What does this fold into?
Amino acid sequence: MKAMVLHGPNLPFELVDVPDPTPGPGEAVARVITCGSGLTIQHAKAGRRAITYPRIIGHEITAEIVAVGAGVSHLKIGDAVTAYYYLNCGHCRWCLANLEPLCAETGGNVGLECDGGYAEYIKLPAHIFIKLPETLDHRAHPAEFGVVTDALATPYKVLSRARIKPGESVAVIGAGGGVGIHQVMFAAWANARVIAVDVAADKFDACRKAGADVTIDPRSTDLVAALRDLTRGNGVDVVIDYVCTSATLEAGVKALGRRGRLVILGGAAQPFNLPAREMLLKELEVIGSRYVTRAEILATFDVVARREVWPLVTDIRPLAEAEAVHDRVERGAVTGRAALRIV
Ligand SMILES: [Zn+2]
It folds into this structure.
């Protein structure tokens, strides 16, 4: 099969022929139609996330099962599938509690610790494949449905982690990013008042189209003062930080009103100082939110199937153009998600 292979950190992709994968017991192989190209996997390509080589990256797939190994009963040839991003064990107490992102015996990530979707075929443990709902026409919108497992499900989960209620004010820091813009969509879908914060002012039109009521560029205005002004001095109810530098996190806490919640996702993940007295007096909460459960992925697909939120994939190119797509991802030039079309 043709595969886009990485041979080391910060090296260009190489499009090469490698042997077709065959499923062992408990495994399945799928033909990949599209695979999303987000910043998470660009971190691996750029050498900011350690992986072993050679490696085929990519996890936001839409694919069709072509072979199943011995003992696999829940998948059959022709099934339309996507992939769960974590290689969770499926049997630890966290997996059994339907909290798979907290798996105590995780094998890492699809496309990082095992080969992923930048190839004609992908082989995974069968339980990592998730069947797409039959209500979705996966051949009509493969790139859109492929990115649901991460770029949409991750922000969907934040609605419940932060207990966002209709009418609350929600500031999204990093709103112009591939996941951030879907966070804007989901916060608007939850009937919150959405404030999009980003240094990429060229993304503000897209943020408004995604449902942002207001946009703030923290390079040209004081972020905390702006968020207080927008809430008549009360402070915002929820800050969702996809940038997570010490500066954004500390500004996020300062901008919270009474009973405010700060949600920490990925980004720089820098340490930061918390004002204990203010947290006590205002009953503030700081909440970590990582990847999602399978149940949250299926719930996100329900929202997409009803077209209440639709994935924003603006740059779909053939596999051979992976290098150009990743160059754009690295520069923050993509609005929403990019994806590669394999077949
Ligand atoms: Zn587990």
Q: What stands out?
A: Residues 88-89, 92, 94-95, 103-105 surround zinc ion (CB under 6 Å). The first strand starts at residue 2 and ends at 5.
